[in-house]
């Protein structure tokens, strides 16, 4: 239906463009030769295809009817965009290349068509051709809007190819005018640092991560990676200090830091410190995952009954499905320790229901587009924004 509506709009534009072309021809030539075919007939053939829900045939007919001139360039570009949006970028390439072959284009129009053609190549996965076209365009254009568009496309291309340094080379000189690019640039540095770690260049990785925090002081990913590097070197106290910075950077990522925090305190033989740290986190934000981890610590140090009491108190402040499921586990454990061969059937039934409700629920969600899943993606796979995916409260501790 969207294609039909859009084609109807394009049909009107084609009619206007054709009318303007005929009017210009009438003014310039008093005895114009009659066209080899009747445009009005082709026009209605295209309309018939459109009404019969045959958009491909309709578009082909309209392209054949519509001559290329300064009045119809925008219509041709719009047709190319329509093909690309429908997943037929190869047809969009044909339209845009046909436009570039016409001498009637102004330099401004020529650059617009080149940008569209670069879009087409990227949609087809022809990144090398898109890059050559964009670099050529940047070398000749004096139009600020075209320069910005070409740079954005280049950055998009380099991201898709994993060419993080190339993306930085394009972006860093423009950060003063585009501060919104600081977050993506910080994540590109994290990607570079990840490669450094894989190549055993940990000192270089630290430099890249510190540079990431200079670009974006709230880059949770860089702080986590610095903590992991400190852990690998046996500097557990330093790792804990790094992790303690994350709630101030983004409190929504408190659940993300917990596995590493627990490991750092355990390796540092400081379970008391872990309990105090978790209690401090709960005083700031009572996340389910923090409640559950604190319950595990109390269970280990003071027994299951104290854990039930502590978790119950916390859930009275911040009830959640994941927390209730964990509390049921504690009650079942308490009954087992009391000598009951099987847990209370009512607890078993409740456990079955909470497990079923939690089983298929995602643990992370993009705050921009709503994409969700079990894995934390630093770059959302759907909208491709960096740092927008976060744990879902109430489920993240399950």
Automatic annotation (TrEMBL):
<dbReference type="GO" id="GO:0005506">
    <property type="term" value="F:iron ion binding"/>
</dbReference>
<keyword id="KW-1133">Transmembrane helix</keyword>
<dbReference type="GO" id="GO:0008653">
    <property type="term" value="P:lipopolysaccharide metabolic process"/>
</dbReference>
<dbReference type="GO" id="GO:0009898">
    <property type="term" value="C:cytoplasmic side of plasma membrane"/>
</dbReference>
<keyword id="KW-0472">Membrane</keyword>
<keyword id="KW-0802">TPR repeat</keyword>
<comment type="function">
    <text>Modulates cellular lipopolysaccharide (LPS) levels by regulating LpxC, which is involved in lipid A biosynthesis. May act by modulating the proteolytic activity of FtsH towards LpxC. May also coordinate assembly of proteins involved in LPS synthesis at the plasma membrane.</text>
</comment>
<keyword id="KW-1003">Cell membrane</keyword>
<feature type="topological domain" description="Cytoplasmic">
    <location>
        <begin position="22"/>
        <end position="398"/>
    </location>
</feature>
<dbReference type="GO" id="GO:0046890">
    <property type="term" value="P:regulation of lipid biosynthetic process"/>
</dbReference>
<feature type="domain" description="LapB rubredoxin metal binding">
    <location>
        <begin position="364"/>
        <end position="390"/>
    </location>
</feature>
<dbReference type="Pfam" id="PF14559">
    <property type="entry name" value="TPR_19"/>
</dbReference>
<comment type="similarity">
    <text>Belongs to the LapB family.</text>
</comment>
<protein>
    <recommendedName>
        <fullName>Lipopolysaccharide assembly protein B</fullName>
    </recommendedName>
</protein>
<feature type="binding site">
    <location>
        <position position="366"/>
    </location>
    <ligand>
        <name>Fe cation</name>
    </ligand>
</feature>
<dbReference type="InterPro" id="IPR051012">
    <property type="entry name" value="CellSynth/LPSAsmb/PSIAsmb"/>
</dbReference>
<dbReference type="InterPro" id="IPR011990">
    <property type="entry name" value="TPR-like_helical_dom_sf"/>
</dbReference>
<keyword id="KW-0997">Cell inner membrane</keyword>
<keyword id="KW-0408">Iron</keyword>
<keyword id="KW-0812">Transmembrane</keyword>
<dbReference type="InterPro" id="IPR041166">
    <property type="entry name" value="Rubredoxin_2"/>
</dbReference>
<dbReference type="InterPro" id="IPR019734">
    <property type="entry name" value="TPR_rpt"/>
</dbReference>
<feature type="binding site">
    <location>
        <position position="383"/>
    </location>
    <ligand>
        <name>Fe cation</name>
    </ligand>
</feature>
<feature type="binding site">
    <location>
        <position position="380"/>
    </location>
    <ligand>
        <name>Fe cation</name>
    </ligand>
</feature>
<feature type="binding site">
    <location>
        <position position="369"/>
    </location>
    <ligand>
        <name>Fe cation</name>
    </ligand>
</feature>
<keyword id="KW-0677">Repeat</keyword>
<dbReference type="Pfam" id="PF18073">
    <property type="entry name" value="Zn_ribbon_LapB"/>
</dbReference>
<dbReference type="InterPro" id="IPR030865">
    <property type="entry name" value="LapB"/>
</dbReference>
<dbReference type="Pfam" id="PF13176">
    <property type="entry name" value="TPR_7"/>
</dbReference>
<keyword id="KW-0479">Metal-binding</keyword>
């Amino acid at each position: 239906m969207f294609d039909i509506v859009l084609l109807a709009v394009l049909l009107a534009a084609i009619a206007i463009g054709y009318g303007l072309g005929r009017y210009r021809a009438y003014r310039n030539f008093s005895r114009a030769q009659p066209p080899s075919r009747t445009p009005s007939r082709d026009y209605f053939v295209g309309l018939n295809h459109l009404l019969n829900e045959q958009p491909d045939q309709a578009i082909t007919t309209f392209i054949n009817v519509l001559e290329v001139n300064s009045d119809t360039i925008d219509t041709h570009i719009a047709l190319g965009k329509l093909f690309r949006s429908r997943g037929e970028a190869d047809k969009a390439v044909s339209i845009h290349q046909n436009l570039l072959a016409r001498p009637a284009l102004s330099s401004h129009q020529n650059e617009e068509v080149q940008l569209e053609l670069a879009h087409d190549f990227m949609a087809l996965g022809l990144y090398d051709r898109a890059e050559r076209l964009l670099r050529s365009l940047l070398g000749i254009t004096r139009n600020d809007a075209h320069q910005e568009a070409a740079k954005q496309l280049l950055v998009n291309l380099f991201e898709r190819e994993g060419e993080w340094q190339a993306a930085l080379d394009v972006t860093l000189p423009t950060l003063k005018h585009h501060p919104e690019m600081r977050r993506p640039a910080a994540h590109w540095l994290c990607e570079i640092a990840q490669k450094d770690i894989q190549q055993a260049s940990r000192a270089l990785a630290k430099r890249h991560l510190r540079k990431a925090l200079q670009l974006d002081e709230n880059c949770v990913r860089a702080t986590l990676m610095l903590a992991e590097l400190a852990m690998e070197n046996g500097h557990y106290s330093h790792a804990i200090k790094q992790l303690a910075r994350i709630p101030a950077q983004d409190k929504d990522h408190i659940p993300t830091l917990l596995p590493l925090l627990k490991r750092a305190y355990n390796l540092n033989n400081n379970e008391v410190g872990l309990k105090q740290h978790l209690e401090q986190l709960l005083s700031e934000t009572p996340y389910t995952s923090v409640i559950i981890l604190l319950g595990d610590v109390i269970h280990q140090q003071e027994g299951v009954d104290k854990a039930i009491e502590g978790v119950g108190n916390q859930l009275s402040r911040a009830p959640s499905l994941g927390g209730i499921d964990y509390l049921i586990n504690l009650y079942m454990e308490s009954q087992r320790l009391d000598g009951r061969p099987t847990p209370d059937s009512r607890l078993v039934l409740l456990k079955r229901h909470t497990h079923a409700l939690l089983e298929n629920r995602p643990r992370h969600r993009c705050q921009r587009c709503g994409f969700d899943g079990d894995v934390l993606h630093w770059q959302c796979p759907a909208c491709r924004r960096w740092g927008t995916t976060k744990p879902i409260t109430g489920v993240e501790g399950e």
